[in-house]
Specification:
The chain has nine helices and no strands. The protein has helices at residues 8-24, 34-41, 45-51, 55-74, 87-103, 105-113, 118-136, 148-168, 175-194. It starts with 7 loop residues before the first helix and ends with a helix.
């Protein structure tokens, strides 16, 4: 059988990945062994090692794949308008973020809420931050009263808190509602969003 057409390697990787996230519901990552993964996925150790060096490589590949998908989902493309952003335009951007999280809920719920890997949150925030940096390049000549890097950390930290709360509470609101609410917070700012004149 032609290796490139053989679906078995893909199926094996999917089974191992599924088993990892099943195990993470009951065990910390540090206690999970390759034997636990291969037994649960019903693959032999040689199959596991044909795809991964060890369990850390497995997790690295999963994270890398999801961060690539996240970056593609939220990528800001095209020339940025010189006009102030509207709630509708910003909401379309955030809708892509919330829909991506929703479509990959098991991964994000595990990685963000169960503290599986401490470095994941940094990687996630870096992916979001890089996208903002690309957008900010278009407005580098605009003078702002606050440090851009601190502003990025503030905005992204708030988004992370909002996403984690949304997942922790079993997504009580739709992606569209969350995107719209976050957009209003971003466009109108904290003080106006709270209701101060």
């Amino acid at each position: 059988m032609n290796q490139s057409c053989d679906p078995r390697p893909k199926r094996s990787r999917e089974r191992i990945t599924t088993e990892l996230f099943h195990l993470l519901e009951h065990h910390s990552f540090s206690t999970i062994t390759v034997k636990m993964l291969t037994d649960g996925a019903e693959v032999n150790r040689s199959t596991f090692y044909a795809h991964y060096k060890d369990k850390y490589d497995l997790l690295d590949q999963i994270v890398e794949e999801h961060m690539t998908l996240l970056a593609e989902a939220i990528r800001i493309t095209g020339k940025q308008s010189a006009e102030p952003p509207t709630v509708e335009r910003v909401s379309r951007y955030f809708a892509r973020l919330f829909i991506h999280i929703e479509q990959n809920e098991r991964f994000y719920r595990t990685m963000l809420l169960q503290g599986t890997v401490k470095t994941f949150i940094s990687r996630f925030l870096d992916t979001l931050k890089e996208n903002y940096r690309l957008a900010f390049r278009e407005t580098t000549s605009v003078s702002v009263p606050v440090d851009r890097d601190l502003l990025l950390n503030y905005v992204i930290g708030g988004q992370l808190g909002l996403l984690m709360s949304w997942l922790r509470n079993d997504r009580p609101y739709s992606s569209e509602y969350m995107a719209n609410q976050l957009s209003q917070m971003i466009v109108f700012g904290t003080v106006e969003s709270i209701g101060f004149p």
